[in-house]
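Bit of a strange request maybe. I'm writing a small parser for structure token strings and I need a real example to test against, not something I typed by hand. Could someone generate the tokens for this chain?
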Amino acid sequence: MSAVDEADWEGPNRGIVIPLAGLAGPEDPGRQRNTMRKAFTLIEILVVIAIVALLAAILFPAFSRTRENARRSSCQSNLKQIGLGLAQYVQDSDERLPFSGTLLNTLNVSAGMGAYAWWRINIMPYVKNTQVFNCPSRAKKSSGNYYPTITYTDQGQSYVLPGTWSYGANQSAMPLDDLAHPSINVARMGKASLLPLIADGTSFNFSGDTAFFRVINSNAPGINGSSDEVSFGPATEDWARHFNGSNILFADGHVKFYQQGALSYIAPSTWPFPIYITDARLQ
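Reply from user aminoacidic:
Good idea to test on real output. This should exercise your parser:
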């Protein structure tokens, strides 16, 4: 201890204790007030819950719509790739489109509706991807569960395709291969940009005044494995695949989204665009 400290200790300040700065004693009321914690009231908690619920109600539909927009874009990409595969097939087949299905079954296609996957089997060497035949927004409870996959063999190689219920082919432009209907020559087609070839749908094909509702109500549920029992009828918003419409691939290769209202027929056998190969609007 230094001399100064000894003097202070033995001087008049002896016995006086000086508290350190910033440390209040237990009797300091300011310290007691600072150490007390205020709890949330029930009303404050309810207000916070209400705000969170309101934000969730606003944002969740937006998130759902964003996800569906992404699925619709993915579906359009699928159809675009299918269109490129069809274009390559046409170039290698004397400008003729493939048949939509076959009743000859020369490739041992699996039983049931598998024979109607013929157009997809024909373009598989060009697209080289089975997933392009599967729409990400196809309803899980649609009739696709009845024939979920299709198998076939080609030159000793086995293949598996998704069920026929994501996309359907225009059977007027791509008829069945039953030796009675010739395939369509694209070179003789007039306005190819007006003719739908492949579209979102509940079944393997579409054509005619009733079958086109498979495209309009492209996510209609199936009954006993058949979508036809419920999809034929007026446009039903709950049965739309992408919000309220469907994607369509046209013969010139472009893909476009149509709302259900824009797809509905104007009069019997008259649609907003020609679906029959004999329609005068294609000339």
